[in-house]
Each structure stands twice: as C-alpha cells, then as structure tokens.
Amino acid sequence: MGTNAELPAVANRLEGKVALITGGASGIGESTARLFCRHGAKVVIADVQDELGESVCGDLGAAASFIHCDVTNEDDISKAVDHAVEKFGQLDVMLNNAGIAGSPVSSVVDSQKSDFERVLSINLVGAFLGTKHAARVMIPARRWAGILATSSHCMRAAAALPSATLTLALQARRRRLTRTRFEARSAMGPSQLRVRLARHAVGHRIQHGADG
C-alpha cells in the first residue's frame, strides 16, 4: 500500500479520524477500509473472518487493527468499540457494513423462518448494536462523528425481497403508514452525530411499484 505522502494533500481528508468497520475483512467493507487508510484514517476491522481480517490489516500496517466480532453478539460489538478507543484513542466513524442476503428462494412459501431470523439478526440487530455502542463513546466525546449503515449484500437483498413483503410495503405506503426518511439521529439528542442509512435500493423498489 502506498503511503499518505504519495497522495495529494486534499486526498488526506480523513487524517486524524478513526473508523470501525464491521464486515471489513472482505467485499465493500475491505475496500472501504483500504480507502479510509489511504485518506489518512486509522481503521479497526471487526469481522468473524479472522484470517481474512488479519491479512487485510497486515497489508494496511500500523494504521489498521483487527478484532473478532460477531455483530449479533452485543458483547462482541461492545468490545470492538472499546478496542477502537483503546487502540487509537477515539472513534469518529462507525460503519455498520456486516450483512448477508440469506438463502435464495424462488417463493416466500419456500422460505425458512430460521433463515429470515438470521438475516434480521445480522443485518438489522447488528446495525442497531453497532449504532448503540458507537454512540455510547461518541456522544460523551462531544466531537464530530458519523454512523453509517450499508452492506455489500444490500442490492441482492432488495432484489430478493419476497413479493408478499413488497406488496405489504406498497399497501403501507398508500395508507401513509411509512415515512420517507428514517434516521437514528432523533434518538441521539443534541450530539454532533451524523447517522446515514443506505435505504435507496428498497426505497426505489417501493417508489417504482407504487407509481406503476
């Protein structure tokens, strides 16, 4: 990996920032970790893929650290956040990236409750726990910080949305039971946290279906 000195000064826009990335050992998480480091950030990769995570951190050098983390386990998430603060002194960016698409099925009739619960546990509960514990250390610090949620499986998950679920979403939209923006920001009080959720894929499907 090239050093920060090889990049123009404008490229080091994350200099002095510390990021924690769940699911950072591969896919979008890995690419983001590498990009963050190129822009001057320190990165903690939290993943269940120990060998891959250690390998990525080996490539990134002293700017990166790996910790084993199952995002469905609150204790693991808490330890990952604490590790970031202990290792690099602060936490400025929390990227809830860990996610799965679940087992592909041709019909909702063939889907399994256990598989659905696993997807929710990783994609939804994992992001909630990441947000909760990142906020735990970010709010008292009273400095700029950001919490983001995304996943390399986001598009696949949206594309595989069972027709019954999509129909219910369309009906809810027509009855004004849904809102156009969902933000965790309102739960953070007056703190300096920016919370962004990657919701465009599903939102586009609902918008297109409702208008069609």
The gross shape turns out to be globular
Segments where pLDDT lies below 50 for 5+ residues?
155-183, 197-207
Span of the ends, CA to CA:
48 Å
What would CATH call the architecture of the domain at 18-101 and 115-158? Answer: 3-Layer(aba) Sandwich
CATH class of the domain at 18-101 and 115-158: Alpha Beta
- Alpha-beta classification: alpha/beta
Strand order, main sheet: write it out: 3-2-1-4-5-6
CATH superfamily (homologous) name of the domain at 18-101 and 115-158: NAD(P)-binding Rossmann-like Domain
What string, H for helix and E for strand, traces the elements in order?
EHEHEHEHEHHEH
Helix content: 40-55%
Q: What is the residue-mean pLDDT, rounded to a whole number?
A: 78
Within the CATH hierarchy, at the fold level, what is the topology of the domain at 18-101 and 115-158? Rossmann fold
How many β-strand runs?
6
Biggest sheet statistics: 6 strands, parallel
Treating each run of at least 4 consecutive H or I residues as one helix, how many helices?
7
Taking Cα atoms only, what radius of gyration do you get, to the nearest Å?
Answer: 18 Å
- Tell me the strand percentage band: 5-15%
